[in-house]
Design a protein that fits this description.
Layout (H helix, E strand, L loop, with lengths): L2 E5 L2 E3 L5 E8 L7 E7 L6 E7 L4 E3 L7 E6 L4 E6 L8 E9 L2 E4 L3 E5 L2
Parallel strand pairs: 2-11
Antiparallel strand pairs: 1-3, 3-8, 4-5, 4-9, 5-6, 7-8, 9-10, 9-11
Length: 115
């Protein structure tokens, strides 16, 4: 099965930047959707950004113009470049991989935006 490992989380001041990475290993298929979700206590998990195997991207309205999702197929890795970070971006960020009826999740990485 596919395993996902996130990295790049941390603490940053408002207006700062972070770059999240998600490396996939195991059985990789050619048609899929990968994305970043985030979750805070008391809230359900929210889709932040996604990218398909045809490079179609999707973003939640609150991050448009600030976040960019990309991928490196040779390394089986997706990235989330987060600029102009706001306190409301604070959450645990999870990498997700979907194909057919299968779904895989990473363990999550903490992003904290605070003064």
């Amino acid at each position: 099965q596919v395993q996902l490992e996130e990295s790049g989380g941390g603490t940053v001041q408002p207006g700062g930047s972070l770059r999240l990475s998600c490396a996939a290993s195991g059985t990789i298929v050619s048609t899929y959707v990968m994305g970043w979700y985030r979750q805070t206590p008391g809230k359900q998990r929210e889709l932040v950004a996604s990218i398909t195997s045809r490079d179609i991207t999707n973003y939640t309205d609150s991050v448009k113009g600030r976040f960019t999702i990309s991928r490196d197929n040779a390394k089986h890795t997706i990235y989330l470049q987060m600029n102009s970070l706001k306190p409301e971006d604070t959450a645990v960020y999870f990498c997700n991989f979907k194909w057919s009826l299968m779904e895989h999740w990473g363990q999550g990485t903490q992003v904290t935006v605070a003064s």
